[in-house]
Design brief:
single chain; 8-stranded antiparallel beta sheet; 211 residues; 17% helix
Length: 211
């Protein structure tokens, strides 16, 4: 049986009901569009298990996709200089989103949240994770005004494992990961990455800078 993301099970069930209803109400030769709908739903919500080996100080890709940009910029969420790795989610990969580092969730931002700073992008969903070494990493999904589908159940105060699946994101959305300015970026524009396993950056321990 094809593994499914939990977020997609209601949609797959609905598609299966449409298939059954089409065969009951229509001639068999007219029911084929419902099978296309079911196949598309199964494809979109597939969720194959993958081996994720924790890597010390590594920042892994939050999604399957292609790196579109690596830039020196300002992190609008934490108000600090940062290095940003932007990834366009692949339509051929899985649509799960994974935590790039291990640590504690300190805060989340979403469209319409009250009390946020004016320079925080209004159409992004973002999560701030702080590692045990005190390094801050923010990953943000650029939702935009077009069709969006995001399910992310992690809460502030929750602990995340490196590469842990934390929700479902679709389809083909840009994802930005903000790293500390002294981090080492391991990818370049045009490179394909897999969520939870491919390293996009390496954090530099703060104590190393003092030695």
């Amino acid at each position: 049986m094809l593994p499914l993301a939990p977020e997609g099970r209601p949609y797959v069930t609905l598609s299966a009901v449409v298939v059954a209803g089409s065969h009951v109400l229509l001639a068999p030769q007219l029911a084929w569009p419902s099978w296309i709908l079911l196949a598309a739903t199964l494809f979109l919500f597939r969720d194959f298990s993958r081996e994720i080996t924790p890597k010390a100080l590594a920042v892994v890709s939050p999604v399957d996709g292609v790196v579109t940009e690596v830039a020196e910029t300002r992190d609008p969420y934490l108000g600090r200089p940062a290095r940003r790795v932007s990834i366009r989610q692949s339509l051929l990969g899985e649509f799960n989103v994974h935590s790039p580092v291990e640590g504690k969730v300190h805060e989340r931002w979403w469209p319409g949240k009250e009390g946020v700073k004016d320079d925080v992008p209004p159409e992004e969903f973002a999560v701030w994770v702080q590692t045990d070494e005190g390094e801050d990493v923010v990953f943000a999904v650029e939702l935009g005004s077009r069709f969006r589908f995001l399910r992310c159940g992690i809460q502030s105060g929750e602990r995340m494992g490196q590469g842990r699946r934390c929700g479902f994101l679709g389809f083909g959305l840009p994802v930005h990961t903000y790293l500390p300015q002294n981090s080492r970026v391991e990818v370049s524009a045009g490179q394909r990455v897999r969520a939870g396993s491919d390293i996009i950056g390496v954090l530099i321990r703060k104590q190393s800078e003092d030695n």
